[in-house]
Amino acid sequence: MASTSRLDALPRVMCPNHPDAILVEDYRAGDMICPECGLVVGNRVIDVGSEWRTFSNDNATKDPSRVGDSQNPLLSDGDLSTMIGKGTGAASFDEFGNSKYQNRRTMSSSDRAMMNAFKEITTMADRINLLRNIVDRTNNLFKQVYEQKSLKGRANDAIASACLYIACRQEGVPRTFKEICAVSRISKKEIGRFFKLILKALETSVDLITTGDFMSRFCSNLCLPKQAQMAATHIAHKVVGLDLVPERSLISVVAAAIYMASQASAEKRTQKEIGDIAGVADVTIRQSYRLIYPRAPDLFPTDFKFDTPVDKLPQL
Amino acid sequence: MDQNNSLPPYAQGLASPQGAMTPGIPIFSPMMPYGTGLTPQPIQNTNSLSLLEEQQRQQQQQAQQQAQQQQQQQQQQQAVAAVQQSTSQQAAPGASGQTPQLFHSQTLTTAPLPGTTPLYPSPVTPMTPITPATPASESSGIVPQLQNIVSTVNLGCKLDLKTIALRARNAEYNPKRFAAVIMRIREPRTTALIFSSGKMVCTGAKSEEQSRLAARKYARVVQKLGFPAKFLDFKIQNMVGSCDVKFPIRLEGLVLTHQQFSSYEPELFPGLIYRMIKPRIVLLIFVSGKVVLTGAKVRAEIYEAFENIYPILKGFRKTT
């Protein structure tokens, strides 16, 4: 019958006799009623809920909603412009069948590029199944960069890809440059360049990557059992702690650790498979593996069940 | 003052009074206070491109500098601090290893007198908040070696690149790829880009004098081909130096503490890029301990930057 709405934040309407009472909203009459004394506080309050519900399987042209999409004030400066819809009567068409009033296009010309970029960001994020919070953060970063105008005129796609990379890093779930490359048309070099430019323009910095950030993703992509994944995490952590591979990138260390763990467990993976998932060349995995192989017994966790014992690990 | 008498007459106006630290003619030395111009100022207007004159001029400068150095040696003998002595022993072998190739001076090949400071004033490290503070007593015994000098000069006349490319030896010209003639000479081993406007870029030299000499050689080649080439506005644009601190460095620690200056992305580049504000130098620091310094216009900037970074790197030495 009546829907409750939280009005605590709004200081405007409250019952004068019972300031703490949460007002009950009667949507049929548009009234706010105090539940304690029954006083009608607000009268004919306009309901801001949506008028119609639209489902995705409905015919797109049949959308009867007269107010358009929900407002996105954080990003698009509050899109308050209106459009004239397609005509339905006979008078709206001229003799050739074209509609007379055609101005449906120019909505928010100043933010057109930004809206385009948001669409691109959403597309890229969908490809690697990124969460909504990362996409929101990316959109925010892009808006900041766009408003600053220091990188104006540069390819928006490159800025968008770099913002996506930074957002993933800031949320604590970094993606490698190669992973972002895979969903974007921009090359790794360009993304790297724009990454540095944006960090400078926004005057922020990001934390260093660690090996543990990538373990769960790579291991589940390889369908490794949980034990192998934990072993690989432990190996990578020990390798970095003992600094056995100082000059190699962390991703190569991760890949070599996964190789060692998978070879020691029942689910063995080849270097090529790991290289494909991690974006590392298999010679690189070989090089890093050679460096950690001598210390193999120390690297495994103590409670690891070896399917292949340590001395039988492949020596490359 | 016999110092004044040894100077040639045209430099009388530049001669400094006795005991002054800043010489009238710039002494070329590693730890000069930043700002004493090190590119040799042409005292006489040498616009003729004769190499013999150039070498004579260089030797004249060296002779003057030798006289200046001897003078300073005597003066600084009194002003030596005990602290300086310990560092001078370290720095002098490094410096004398460095300077002979420039001065060809005989006095430096003999061992420096014990107890004298080397031939330069005390290292002045500016204690600004932006520069990492350096204790005045410590100094690394390492001197960065210059690897590359990029300089530009204006030959002052329009050139026809096609004739230059056809008639000169060791010249390549591919107008579809790049709009300049690329010429190389063997001694000093350098490469020059010669543009049709008459401007020239000379790269690959290992010292300022070599860069100037090479630029003059290129200008001479162009002159011999029939163009009225001059030698205007020779300027060194960039100097690159490198050295080795001989211990491994913890780059992760360095990027954590010096976040506003450093950028370390192991996925993009294996070295840490440190942008020092004063002097404005970019340093590439690697895990192995090798350091590359670039972006300097004068040699002293490279030395100063290295002296600034060395104590920081020592703090991030890898202990294992």
Explained architecture:
The complex is a heterodimer of chains A (316) and B (320). Chain A is mostly helical. Helices cover 44% and strands 3% of the residues of chain A. Chain A is built from twelve helices and four strands; from the N terminus they run ββββαααααααααααα. In chain A, strands 1-2-3-4 form a four-stranded antiparallel beta sheet, with no helix packed on it. In chain A, a hairpin with a 4-residue loop joins strand 2 (24-26) and strand 3 (31-33). In chain A, helix 2 (112-127) crosses helix 4 (156-170), helix 3 (132-148) packs across helix 4 (156-170) and helix 10 (271-278) crosses helix 11. The model of chain A is unreliable at 1-9 (pLDDT under 50). Chain B is an alpha+beta fold and 320 residues long. Helix content of chain B is 32%, strand content 20%. Chain B has a ten-stranded antiparallel beta sheet with strand order 2-3-4-5-1-6-10-9-8-7, with helices on one face. In chain B, helix 2 packs antiparallel against helix 6 (208-224). Chain B is flat. The N and C termini of chain B lie far apart (58 Å). Chains A and B meet through helix 6 of A and helix 7 of B.
